[in-house]
Amino acid sequence: MSATVQLPSDHQAVTVAEAMVALRISRPKVYDLIRSGALPSFTIGRARRIPADSLHRFIRNQIEEAA
């Protein structure tokens, strides 16, 4: 069974809080994934954003690794 994370389709990038909800993990864990390079992100000023396609790719990779 594969689960699909539903993010707003018009968003090109999501916030750390939106990634937390999508992945159901804590803020520190999201930042751990960002620091490790597993979840690419960028900043605009002080705002950290995660490209939506990177989040979806991360989820697909996790599913494939678990199979």
TrEMBL record:
It comes from the Bacteria. Residues 15-62 form the Helix-turn-helix domain. InterPro entries: HTH_17 (IPR041657), SinI_DNA-bd (IPR010093). NCBIfam families: excise. This is Helix-turn-helix domain-containing protein. It comes from Streptomyces pakalii. The lineage of its organism: Bacteria, Bacillati, Actinomycetota, Actinomycetes, Kitasatosporales.
